[in-house]
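Q: How do we represent a protein-ligand complex in a form that can be generated token by token?
A: Start from the inputs.
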Amino acid sequence: MKRIAIYPGTFDPVTYGHIDLIKRGASLFDRFIIAVAHSYDKKPLFSVEERVEMLKTVTGTMSGVEVDDFGGLLVNYVKGQGARVIVRGLRVISDFEFEFQMALTNRNLVPDIETVFMMTNESYSYFSSRIIKETVKLGAEVDKFVPPQVMEKLKEKLR
Ligand code: COA
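Then emit the structure tokens for the protein with coenzyme A bound:
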């Protein structure tokens, strides 16, 4: 039986923090599906198509990694893919409360789906997509945080 993991998020945009987690996560599963949430409530800067495209560009050569998008309940998407594992990254202690709520809600909805947490690499633990967008908007280069293709897209949108 194939071990399938779903790694959901908004990815607005994908950062080196996500990429580090994708590389490590993908080495543990046969299929590692990055599921880009529509997340319309978050009013993303990039459309879902743009977020998927950027992820496909930066993960293109990684074996076992797929990129998809989903709307509606995450657990329905996970079941639809025949998966039982959701992977989430933890950056700092403040992530814990929200992740705890999500994991328990998802478990209540579908008891045999497990959420597996991975620690984000310490070099990437302090930033988020929102901070990166704000920094680029104010004129800084953020090439330590995002791949060059993503930096270009950020500049096109924000400057
Ligand atoms: N390194 C650096 N930063 C990271 C990171 C990492 N490894 N992993 C996440 N982040 C950052 C992201 O950039 C993001 O920053 P931002 O808030 O400034 O944009 C932040 O952490 C949180 O991002 P993400 O992991 O994408 O979470 P999210 O809150 O946007 O998405 C969903 C959560 C989409 C998984 C969740 O809302 C969901 O499941 N939605 C579907 C609807 C549903 O089923 N709801 C009920 C579930 S309880």
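Residues 4-122 form a domain with the Rossmann fold fold (CATH 3.40.50.620). The mean pLDDT is 96.
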